[in-house]
Every structure is written in structure tokens, then in C-alpha cells.
Design a protein that fits this description.
The complex is a heterodimer of chains A (375) and B (211). Chain A has 375 residues and is of the alpha+beta class. Chain A has 9 helices and 12 strands. A 5-stranded antiparallel beta sheet of chain A has the order 2-1-5-4-3. Chain A has a 5-stranded mixed beta sheet with strand order 7-9-10-12-11, with helices on one face. The longest helix of chain A is centred in the middle third of the chain and has 68 residues. Classes of the chains: A alpha+beta (375), B alpha/beta (211).
Chain lengths: 375, 211
């Protein structure tokens, strides 16, 4: 039955001024004649006069007003392009009223409610997981502290008996070498080598436990970096000589003095030099440079060893990791030297870089700021 | 002892919470943490107090349930901000499990209780909203806690609480059970007399005093 003009007008008035919906009144061509305040708030005040289809997100470019009017369905899901915000989807109803087309859109409240509940539960789950992670993290930190204390105590207690073994082995080798046959001398040398390795291992453990426990103290003083390198080179020259590896040392003249912990930096230099020599074959050369660049002291060690893959370099500073590169003299590694070296340089707020290519050797570079660090 | 949470700061936080502005709430909480506020003070004087007010506003139809849920979600996020400070204290060897009953989706109160246990040196596990009785019993069996806490926020879930208490008391006869939550704000704790070992705590302050 056709609706009377008064009835139609009442319907339009209701949708425009009362109903909590998006209200559009279109002409037969789909041009917007009138909207309510919800539309203006959402889409802006200037939409009257535009085509309704321009407001839609229509990926298929298939919107035809006639199709939706004929469909006569209550729930046509369409998405509106919202200025300065994300698109929103509404359930639209299209009705022909006299010469105009009434369009009203409402949110799918059931879907919104479902989404709200899911979001609340997801937020709860996320926060519960966050709580569990923080709790687990605190437990792990506590266990790590206990581990470091244990490591420090064990290493400290082992250091003295190892030193006794090492000292007596060295004493016997010095004093009784002429009285012992070759086999017994080789036994003593093995005892000496093993004790030396154990002493290095224990020293490294003590360093790592001190670093991780946060009790790694720097004794900062103003020193000449060339003097530190010279001290380090004494040991390096002996190691290199034994392996017939050449050492090419280049120290720039007139280097500035620097505020560092001399013993710790010497330890870092020893580690880098020792590593380079251990990975060098007889007849190759290890190049050492010390220079001043841009307010920094730069110490660099380059070997001609087998180098490393990119994968191996990622693991380089991880405790107990090995690069896979074979030490040319069969030397043992504690797997902690580079970790400690990195920590020493970090503690000085310095930087360490590594360049390497398989088959082309490796260069470690240590950068230390000249300026005294506050605190 | 003066509080770091002055009346105007509390009002600003409450207004931000009701507006749904997580970033403003976060700003206030992180500033208070940087100023070394006691976590328990933050819990009782800011989180608990503001959420009680949010609950009141909902009860008198000043705010919608959606807005109340939004405030709850923001408060839960604020609890997470305190966790780096919460779990680092010295621990005793006491363990608690805090859980909501089945069908109870309001978990904020229970979680705050678990955190108060942590603040007092306990190792407190929080099982979350809507915990099935079977899972709760399995967890108790696995962890063997010194105490179990059950939170009930909505009085209509009282039957679920009874089922939970029946199950706990029949499987673990000597376990202390703490019961609390907004559901009992108008009474109803008489039901606990049927369950030996079950005690009602009406506030975080009362709980702290006994820990």
C-alpha cells in the first residue's frame, strides 16, 4: 500500500532527527540531498551535493544504487571512507520514499560487542603473560646472581692449587731438566701447559663473574697508550716467535695520553694479539697499528688467517662460542677471551669492530675516546 | 607520613582513566615510579581507589559498562608498568596461588592481591580470569602452595565459588584459603563458614597487615 505524504514525511523526520543512525536522503541519481548530524560529525559538513557512491570504499567499482534498492534487504554491509581516520563498516538499508531514496546505516552492535569482549580478554591475557614474563625474568636474574657467586667462589678456590702445580712444574723444569730423560721432561711440560690453561680459564671465570655481578671496577688513570701496547707486545713477540709469525708494529708518533684502566686495556690488547697469533700460520704476518683518529685512540690487529663467515661473526662475543677457525698451533681456547675484551671496552665506553672474510684474515679494531669519561 | 599522590594528582589520574586516555595515565604512573613511590602506595592510593570510584560511577549509571571495562583494561596495563619494580625484592619461601572462579571474568582485584603477596616476599602465581576448577586443582597439586586465594567480583558467580571451595577443601584439607572480591561488598561471607580454612579479607590493607 502506498504511503501517504504525511506518513513519509514523518518517517524522514524520525530518521533525520531522532534515530541513532547515519541518515542520508538521496535523489534518484544518488546525489546526497540531506544528512543528519551523525553523518556530519563522521564525514564532514560538506557532503551534501556529493554522490553517495563517492563515500564508499568500493574495491570492485560495482556499487549501483538501484541494485541495493531492489534488494530491499535490511543488512547490506558497506564501508565508508572516513576523513582522517580508518574506514568503518555499517549495515545499510535503502528505501524509496516518494521521489527520494532514504538510506540509513547502523553499526553491527552484536559484532562490536563480540569484538569488545575479545579485546578485553586479549588485553587480560597479554597482561597476565607480561606478569609471568617479569616474574620469570626476576627468577632468572636471581639464579644468575647465585651462579655468578658460585662461579666466583669456585674459581677463586681453584686458583691457588693451580698456581702451586704451575710453580712446581716450572721449578722442576728449570732445576732438574738435565737429570730427567726426554719422556719425563715432556710429562712435566704437559703438566705446565695444562696448569697454564687452567689458570687462564680460572682467571677468565673470575673476570666474567665480576662483570656479570656488576663488580667490575675500573682503575682509571692518565697513561700513554704506546706504553700499554709495548707491555703487551713483550708477550706477543714471544708467542709470535715460537710460531714463526712476523709482527709488523706501527705506532703513530706523539699520541695523546688517555684516561683508561691500563691493566684492563693491556688485558684486552693481550687477548686480541694472542688471538691473531694463534690463528696465524707460520710465515704469515700480524699487523698491529696504534694511532689517533678523531679524538680517539685506535688500536688495530690484522691477521692473515682463515677469517670467519658472517654467521661465525655473529657469535663471536658470545661466551664459550667458537668460530670454527682452527688455531694453527693447536692452542686451547677458554671461549671467554673476546667476551671479556668486549666488556672491558664497553666499560670504557669505547667501541670494538671486526672485519673478516673467509680466507682473507680478520681485523679487530678497538676505539677508545681521548676525553675523560665522567662517572 | 605524607603521600606522593596528592588530591589533585589523583583527580587528574581519575579523569584520564574515565576519558580512556592510557597515555596520560601512563605518564602519571611512570613519573611517580621515577620519583620512587612505594608500589603498595601506588596500588592502594591510585589503582584501587580510582577503580573503586569507577565502580561506584557505574553502579549509579554515570558511566557505561564499556567505559568501566576500558578503565579496568588501562589499570591492568598500569600494573604491568610496575612489574620491573615488583618482582625484584627479597623472597621468602612462601608460595601463593591466586585465581578467579570459573565464569568470573573480572580479574583485576585478584591480580592486585597476587602482586601484594609478591611485594611482601611471597612467590605469587596468578592464574587469571575464568579458571576452570580442574586446572586450578592441577596447579595446586603441582606448585603445592602455602595458601590459595580465590577472587569473586560478581555475586551471581557465588555458585561457582562454592564449587571451587568444595573442590579445594576436599582435595587439600589443610590448605589456607583466602577469599575476597567486590562480590562481598554488601555481605554474603556467611557461606564461607561451611569451608574450613577459608577466610574473607575485605581489603588489600587488611591482607597486608596479616602477611
Amino acid at each position: 500500500m502506498p504511503e501517504s505524504p504525511a506518513h513519509s514525511q514523518a518517517i524522514l523526520e524520525y530518521f533525520k532527527n531522532v534515530a541513532p543512525v547515519l541518515y542520508f536522503l538521496l535523489n534518484q541519481d544518488g546525489i546526497i540531498l540531506s544528512v543528519n548530524r551523525y553523518c556530519q560529525d563522521l564525514l564532514g559538513a560538506t557532503i551534501v551535493g556529493r554522490s553517495f557512491s563517492e563515500l564508499l570504499i568500493d574495491f570492485q567499482q560495482s556499487f549501483r544504487l538501484e541494485k541495493y534498492i531492489c534488494k530491499n534487504a535490511d543488512r547490506s554491509l558497506l564501508s565508508l571512507n572516513i576523513p582522517n581516520s580508518l574506514p568503518r563498516s555499517y549495515l545499510f538499508t535503502f528505501r524509496r520514499i516518494n521521489d527520494s531514496i532514504l538510506v540509513f546505516g547502523r553499526s553491527d552492535t552484536e559484532e562490536l560487542e563480540q569484538l569488545r569482549l575479545e579485546l578485553l580478554r586479549a588485553n587480560q591475557d597479554l597482561n597476565n603473560l607480561t606478569r609471568s614474563l617479569h616474574k620469570k625474568n626476576a627468577q632468572l636474574a636471581h639464579l644468575n646472581t647465585i651462579k655468578n657467586q658460585f662461579l666466583g667462589m669456585a674459581a677463586h678456590d681453584l686458583r691457588k692449587p693451580i698456581s702451586v702445580i704451575l710453580n712446581y712444574a716450572e721449578f722442576l723444569l728449570d732445576e732438574t731438566a738435565e737429570q730427567l730423560d726426554e719422556e719425563h721432561t715432556s710429562f712435566l711440560r704437559r703438566i705446565e701447559h695444562s696448569a697454564l690453561f687452567m689458570k687462564r680459564l680460572v682467571d677468565d671465570f673470575l673476570d666474567v663473574s665480576a662483570i656479570e655481578a656488576g663488580s667490575f671496577q675500573l682503575n682509571i688513570a692518565q697513561v700513554n697508550p704506546a706504553e700499554i701496547l709495548e707491555r703487551s707486545l713483550v708477550l706477543a713477540r714471544m708467542q709470535a716467535g715460537k710460531k714463526r709469525v712476523a709482527l709488523a708494529v706501527s705506532v703513530a708518533p706523539g699520541l695523546s695520553e688517555i684516561f683508561i684502566d691500563a691493566d684492563k686495556i693491556e688485558q684486552a690488547m693481550n687477548n686480541l694479539l694472542g688471538n691473531a697469533i694463534e690463528h696465524s700460520a707460520a710465515g704469515t704476518c700480524v699487523s698491529v697499528t696504534l694511532q689517533e683518529v678523531d679524538e680517539r685512540i685506535v688500536f688495530s690487529v690484522q691477521d692473515q688467517g682463515v677469517g670467519m663467515s658472517q654467521e661465525a661473526m655473529k657469535q663471536l662475543f658470545t661466551p664459550f662460542s667458537t668460530t670454527g677457525a682452527i688455531k694453527t698451533g693447536g692452542e686451547k681456547s677458554t671461549g671467554l677471551g673476546l667476551t671479556i675484551t668486549r666488556k672491558i671496552i664497553d666499560a670504557h665506553q669505547g667501541e670494538m669492530t671486526v672485519e673478516s672474510e673467509e680466507g682473507s684474515g680478520t681485523t679487530f679494531t678497538m676505539h677508545l675516546k681521548l676525553k675523560k669519561n665522567d662517572g | 607520613m605524607g603521600t606522593k599522590i596528592k588530591a589533585d594528582l589523583y583527580q587528574t589520574y581519575l579523569a584520564s582513566l574515565l576519558r580512556g586516555s592510557k597515555s596520560e595515565c601512563l605518564n602519571i604512573v611512570t613519573t611517580l615510579l621515577e620519583n620512587k613511590i612505594e608500589i603498595r602506595e601506588l596500588y592502594t592510593e591510585l589503582f584501587q581507589k580510582s577503580m573503586y570510584r569507577v565502580g561506584e560511577l557505574w553502579e549509579i549509571n554515570e558511566i557505561s559498562v564499556s567505559r568501566e571495562h576500558l578503565a579496568t583494561a588501562i589499570t591492568e596495563n598500569m600494573l604491568s608498568v610496575t612489574y620491573p619494580y615488583l618482582f625484584t625484592g627479597v623472597k621468602s619461601d612462601k608460595t601463593a596461588i591466586i585465581s578467579c572462579t570459573a565464569n568470573e571474568y573480572h580479574q583485576l582485584g585478584g591480580k592486585m592481591v597476587a602482586d601484594i603477596f609478591e611485594l611482601n616476599g611471597w612467590d605469587a602465581y596468578f592464574l587469571g580470569a575464568n579458571t576452570p576448577v580442574k586446572e586450578l586443582l592441577q596447579f595446586i597439586d603441582e606448585i603445592k602452595p602455602d595458601l590459595i586465594g580465590v577472587s569473586l567480583a560478581v555475586y551471581f558467580n557465588l555458585p561457582a565459588l562454592k564449587v571451587t571451595l568444595e573442590a579445594i577443601t576436599s582435595h587439600f584439607q589443610n590448605l589456607d584459603i583466602l577469599v575476597g572480591g567486590h562480590a562481598f561488598i554488601w555481605g554474603g561471607t556467611g557461606v564461607l563458614k561451611n569451608y574450613p580454612g577459608a577466610h574473607y579479607y575485605e581489603s588489600l590493607a587488611q591482607l597486608e597487615a596479616d602477611l
